[in-house]
């Protein structure tokens, strides 16, 4: 009883943490605007915080996938969940791509804009794009040089690949692999604990990042691209609430508004860091708490972070059309489809990484329309602001995908979903790791093939 009475006080501490993030963001805007020199000098604080988060991503993904696959007894069950997830990701990416194309062609925000004075940064991103490679280079990059290098190289796809091998290996071992699975579970708890400590630095990181962006671009620079930013944000809102929300309501009977409220703190964290990866561990924990089985969460969420790039698809579409129109060299429909499909493939594994969208944009332009590469410099000033909506949309897509795949594979508890979203079963913010009995006798029976 005493333990239950103590929990609300500890949850209150995390509540103050996220209020501190809001204050830090506002203070960062003021600092960057009123004292640009100081704003630029503290920019490294934001970079250091994001680097701390990125440092933990590979261990989080590895543990999650190994536990998700290794704990499922039937390999066909994993294949069903994974197959549905990949198919869903491809369909939704195509829809996001089409929406971006339609909005970009209707608004034509770059038409009549002179960007000659904004092309100075293009060479920097052209150099980054040289190593972008094609489809074969992308496939080759999935295979790491060693098992351990997949956890240290910072490649999400390499971590996914090795985690799948380890997960299926443990699954094939049967009961012999249970001690290994238990050890990985303990490591996962350690990783989440470290993440919890790092997140207490979020206000400092948010202050430095926002102050640096405002000091570097200035309010005037943001105003020049207001149409593109507003159009992009509105497109993301329509996609999340209009497309994803309607689909989830029809398929699962879940309200997108309640799900967004449930994930409110994660959205705040993403906005402060412009990276959806900063909220990945919390999304995994919250989806399990929501009532989705661990096996489904362990497959859908990490895979979605590499393949479910709805926000990135919209961003690449609209940014490309904007640059082409601004330079007076609009793309034909054939060129639009070819170029943007290449970008979707090239961006796999880069979801949530701050700046990855800009590098992918430069790589795609250099591969298909090199003469448009000079226009990338125009996007640099507002990419950080656009990356926030991009990351939030990617995150929303993965949350909805987890609910949908759970519904289609019957690995979700509808009654628990209702109770959690109605705030009858609050998420335990003290540990960030869900502690509800995921290994109940009923669940174990459900995991055994008939």
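Sequence proposed for the structure above (450 residues):
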């Amino acid at each position: 009883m005493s333990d239950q009475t103590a929990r609300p006080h500890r949850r209150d501490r995390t509540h103050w943490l996220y209020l501190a993030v809001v204050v830090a963001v506002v203070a960062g805007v003021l600092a960057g605007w009123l004292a640009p020199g100081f704003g630029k000098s503290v920019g490294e604080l934001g970079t250091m915080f994001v680097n701390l988060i990125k440092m933990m991503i590979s261990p989080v993904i590895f543990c999650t996938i190994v536990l998700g696959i290794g704990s499922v007894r039937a390999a066909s069950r994993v294949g069903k969940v994974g197959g549905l997830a990949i198919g869903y990701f491809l369909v939704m990416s195509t829809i996001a791509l089409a929406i971006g194309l339609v909005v970009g062609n209707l608004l034509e925000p770059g038409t009549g804009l002179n960007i000659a004075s904004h092309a100075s940064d293009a060479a920097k991103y052209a150099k980054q794009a040289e190593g972008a490679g094609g489809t074969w280079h992308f496939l080759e990059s999935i295979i790491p040089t060693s098992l351990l290098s997949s956890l240290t190289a910072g490649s999400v796809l390499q971590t996914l690949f090795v985690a799948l091998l380890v997960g299926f290996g443990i699954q094939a071992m049967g009961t012999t692999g249970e001690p290994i699975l238990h050890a990985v579970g303990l490591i996962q708890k350690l990783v989440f604990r470290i993440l919890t400590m790092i997140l207490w630095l979020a206000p400092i990181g948010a202050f430095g990042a926002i102050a640096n962006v405002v000091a570097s671009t200035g309010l005037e620079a943001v105003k020049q691209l207001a149409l593109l930013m507003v159009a992009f944000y509105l497109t993301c809102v329509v996609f999340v609430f209009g497309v994803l929300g309607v689909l989830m309501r029809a398929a699962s009977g879940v309200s997108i508004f309640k799900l967004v409220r449930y994930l409110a703190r994660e959205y705040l964290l993403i906005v402060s860091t412009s990276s959806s990866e900063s909220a990945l561990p919390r999304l995994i924990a919250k989806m399990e708490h929501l009532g989705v089985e661990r096996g489904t969460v362990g497959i859908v969420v990490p895979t979605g972070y590499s393949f479910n790039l709805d926000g990135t698809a919209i961003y690449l579409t609209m940014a490309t059309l904007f640059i082409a129109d601004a330079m007076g060299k609009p793309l034909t429909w054939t060129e639009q489809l070819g170029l943007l499909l290449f970008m979707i493939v090239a961006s796999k594994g880069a979801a949530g990484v701050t700046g990855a969208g800009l590098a992918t944009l430069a790589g795609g332009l250099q591969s298909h329309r090199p003469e448009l590469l000079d226009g990338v410099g125009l996007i640099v000033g507002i990419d950080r602001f656009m990356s926030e909506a991009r990351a939030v949309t990617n995150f929303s897509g993965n949350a909805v995908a987890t609910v949908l795949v759970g519904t289609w594979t019957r690995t979700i508890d509808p009654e628990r979903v209702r109770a959690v979203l109605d705030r009858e079963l609050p998420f335990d913010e003290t540990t960030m790791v869900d502690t509800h009995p995921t290994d109940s006798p009923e669940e174990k029976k459900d995991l055994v093939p008939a």
